[in-house]
Amino acid sequence: MPRELSLAEIFQLGYYWETKILLTAIKLDLFSALDSRSFSSSELANRLTLHDRSLSLLLNALVAMRVLAKHDGQFTNSSVAQQYLVKTNPEYVGNLLILHDSEWENWGKIEDTIRTGTSPVRQHVFETNPEMGANVLAVLDRIGRGSGVNLAKYLQLDEVEHLVDIGGGAGTNAIACCQEYPHLKATVFDLPQTLHVTERYIKDVGLEDRISLKPGDFNADSLGGPYDLALMSDILHYQDHQTNAALVGKVFTHLQGNGRLVIKDRFLDPGRTSPAWTTAFAVHIMVNTEHGDCFTTQEAMDWMVTAGFQSVTELETRAIVQGTKA
Ligand SMILES: C[S@@+](CC[C@H](N)C(=O)[O-])C[C@H]1O[C@@H](n2cnc3c(N)ncnc32)[C@H](O)[C@@H]1O
After folding, report:
1. pTM for this model (two decimals)
2. Which residues make Cβ contacts (< 8 Å) with residue 264, sequence separation at least 6?
3. Confidence of residue 153 (pLDDT cuts 50, 70, 90)
């Protein structure tokens, strides 16, 4: 049994102040303005046309949060802020946090959502704001590069000739698989607005001749094929149970006779109270998508079995499930 929370910890959980302080600093791009220099609050306020006193309070809090340092009234980036929150740095992750900041209004409506069951949004970010979607995919791509290689090795694709990455985003997994298996061809199926981004990433690594792009809505349009393997990575939590069951059934018809479907997602334990991050993510996805949800691996496996897949297994706990057509 985990130990009980103290009152201090309950209060701590209730303070979202630091979250909004950090997100606002990223939105104002304070870290890029500082870069490797040091400025007083008024110097920074002048540079960014901000209100000096208000900014100074924010900067002091960021120092207390260990995101910035302060010496003799001069503020500097901490090394982690310098590495990840300065826009010109290749490891910049601010765009993912800016997405969270843009969802602030939706979180403000969570009480209504819990009362009515209706989310404040009708479409997800990849549909409503392709530019922000592209920025988010850039961060996901950077984070996913390492795990993409591991996934490619793990899936053992020696016998696979053609895979389709459904909702493949920046092409991170398709690229990793093609780099790992030189004989492999891949198709990235995604919304047309997303594929503009994907095309750039594929060109950057020189895989245009092996990775093709297929634009469409995976719920409404033909997926092409038949393919030897279909991958669905981090897409099913944007949709409800029935839509996912229907999509898995549709994918079945786009596979070769001995084809495989691999679903990678953030799955919940059967009791749905862990992993902790995923339980909070489920609330996030409820508030910020029309019908999004998090599911258990058993639910994903049930979609596969109902669709006709065999040898359905949980390949990696709470992360990857797989089924074969024959
Ligand atoms: C969170 S990203 C996942 C990207 C990639 N699979 C990965 O694991 O990094 C979700 C992707 O699903 C795509 N997507 C969402 N709804 C879609 C739809 N109805 N049809 C096609 N693609 C969709 C988005 O454009 C986006 O690229």
Report:
1. 0.93
2. 151, 231, 232, 233, 234, 319, 320
3. very high
